[in-house]
Design goal:
- There is one protein chain.
- This protein has about 325 residues and is of the alpha/beta class.
- The chain has a single domain, classed as 3-Layer(aba) Sandwich (UDP-N-acetylmuramoyl-L-alanine:D-glutamate ligase), CATH 3.40.1190.
- About 35% of the residues lie in helices and about 25% in strands.
- It is built from 11 helices and 13 strands.
- Helix 1 crosses helix 9, helix 9 packs antiparallel against helix 10 and helix 10 crosses helix 11.
- The protein starts with 5 loop residues before the first strand and ends with a helix.
């Protein structure tokens, strides 16, 4: 039994989400919720009953109380959420079917961009089993980038597992930026999540997934999970041993943030003693269920649904 206070602490942005299953030109109503990649990972782990903390800056605008109330209702620890006078960002997502998606970001000069080293409390970081952040967090500002590196450095010095996802998107950063963010944080990373479609092609000049995994292992990253849409599953490497875990389902509606749900479920499982392979299977179920709904967090599943499948179905 761990003496750590938190299974997982994530660092990143919070965004207001407006979603619809109609085309944006036709929609008369948008459903309000919230998202952000590190926040989705936090909620996914929390809904599986992990004890989870979240570090961010939140804008003091009409959405502040809406988000704080929901996070506290989820049981997310918010003691290191700092309120600023900078507004909150938001995004709009429309998904009329699995092949027709509209996505718009409004995230320049938003509250989470105020993240800095001052938001990283050493004792808070040391109280976690796992610390998680992404390239999206690094892209917010130089201060946010420094905060991620500082948190990972504290974690490494105190035996706390570090987990990272480049989560590259051309809507947010350039391939050169993604490479720079990755190269900065890779030496401090224990668990790495990547997408074969986006991350590996943007960051590496290496075609073979096996060679990418070998390269990552050579630079000291112990656990690597690469999602492959073409192969419909996840390549899971732990200390050089590679397994393949297939997608739980191909019957999906909206894949927005399903990768983030996977990450949160995987880290929950690792923190609670499951093997890397078992953790990937649990996370595949979680991500598959999440992708059957619209939006980032509304459709993230809960513990009983995920583990009923894990304990009874072979896929």
């Amino acid at each position: 039994m761990s003496d750590k206070r938190f299974d997982l602490i994530t660092i990143g942005e919070s965004l207001v989400e407006f979603s619809t299953n109609q085309k944006l030109s036709d929609a008369e109503c948008l459903h309000k919720y919230y998202g952000g990649d590190s926040l989705v990972a936090a909620i996914a782990a929390r809904r599986l009953n992990s004890n989870v903390g979240f570090i961010t800056c939140l804008g003091n605008d009409p959405f502040k109380n809406f988000m704080l109330k929901h996070w506290e209702n989820e049981g997310l620890n918010t003691e290191h959420v700092r309120v600023t006078d900078t507004p909150n960002g938001f995004y709009i997502v429309s998904r009329t079917d699995v092949h027709d998606k509209e996505f718009m970001y409004y995230r320049k000069k938003i509250a989470p961009s105020k993240l800095s080293i001052e938001d990283i409390d050493e004792e808070y970081i040391k109280s976690a089993q796992i610390i998680y952040a992404s390239g999206v967090t690094q892209s917010l500002s130089l201060g946010a980038r420094e905060a991620v590196k500082y948190a990972f450095k504290i974690a490494r010095e105190n035996g706390v597992i570090t987990a990272y996802d480049p989560n590259y998107s051309s809507l947010i950063s350039t391939p050169d930026d993604a490479k720079e963010y990755f190269n900065e944080i890779a030496p401090l990373t224990d668990i790495l999540f990547m997408s074969a479609k986006y991350d590996t092609k943007s960051i590496f000049d290496i075609e073979s997934l096996e060679n990418i995994i070998k390269h990552l292992s050579d630079i000291g990253i112990q656990t690597v999970i690469i999602k492959s849409g073409d192969e419909k599953g996840y390549h899971v490497s732990n200390q050089g041993n590679i397994n393949f875990v297939k997608f739980y389902t191909e019957n999906v509606v909206d894949t927005t943030s399903s990768g983030d749900a996977f990450n949160g479920a995987f880290l929950h499982s690792v923190a609670n003693g499951y093997s890397i392979y078992e953790s990937a299977k649990i996370a595949s179920i979680d991500a598959g269920l999440q992708a059957q709904g619209i939006g980032a967090i509304k459709s993230v599943p809960f513990h009983d649904e995920v583990f009923k499948i894990f304990n009874t179905e072979d896929f």
